Each structure stands twice: as structure tokens, then as C-alpha cells.
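Morning run. Coffee first, then this:
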Amino acid sequence: MVTWRTALPSDEPARLLLDQYFTARAHGFPAGPDAYRRTVPDDAEFTPPAGVFVLVEGENLSGEPADVGCGGVRRIADGPAGPRFEVKHLWVQPHTRRLGYGRALMDELTHRARDLGAAELVLDTNESLEAASALYRSLGFAPIAPYNDNPNATTWLGRTL
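And here it is:
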């Protein structure tokens, strides 16, 4: 069973998950780990009403309760539809993939963004993350013009809420 817990990115459990996320992203980065640019999230951007950061509570490989993923939404400059929030640092541990945790986390973040007043949800990703891109598109995200200068991104997606 998956449950959610709000945290700040600087909280110890969130930092551990973010470190796993950044390490995995760097090792899988097409241009090599040294080319990946790690950006430490600012707590203020993930504190309501500016945003929120969520931990995924599931089970570790031994079946014990554990934090197994994370992600957040933060308000950025308004877009064509009005208040725009960005999905950041969506990640679930490998043993939870293909179990619906990523989709459930996206659904939870979408719900929380709506509660914070979002009219549009956007994200950036890298084309090498094929499973993530497929998930986003299945949730109604479509290509949009780049809205930031993230050096790790090759694709920008968005959807109205």
C-alpha cells in the first residue's frame, strides 16, 4: 500500500531519496555523469503556498515500511492558462517501478497542485527517460515550448488542469 508524507527537501528522509535520485540520473545521463548538473531544491519553493514536496511511503526489499520515492510541485511564472506549477524530482526506487507508484505519485502531485491553485502543470525531462516520458504522455502531458534553461532537459511537457 502506498501512502504520502509531506516533507521539506532538506529533511533527512527527503535528502536520502534526492541523493539516490541525483546519483541515478547522473549515472544514466546520456552525456555521462560529469555532464549532469545537480540542483539542490530550495525548501521555500516546496513550502505551501509556493509548492509542496511529498515522500512515497511503501516497502523496502525486505517488505518493511520505508520511504521509496519522492517528488514535488512548485509555483513558477504564470503560463498561458494562469497559475503554473512545475513537477520536480519525481523518482521512485527501482524495486517499486512497474507497480504504479510513479503514476500514483503524479496523481497525488497533480491533486496537490490543484489545491495550491494551479491551472497548468509543466515539467522538463530528458528524452533518454523513455518510461517517464511515456508515463507523462499517458497522463495528458504534451510538448510545450521550453520554459527554463535546465541543461539536463531535452523535452518540456505541460497540461492544463
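The beta strands are 3-7, 51-59, 65-79, 82-92, 120-125, 142-143, 155-160. Good start to the day.
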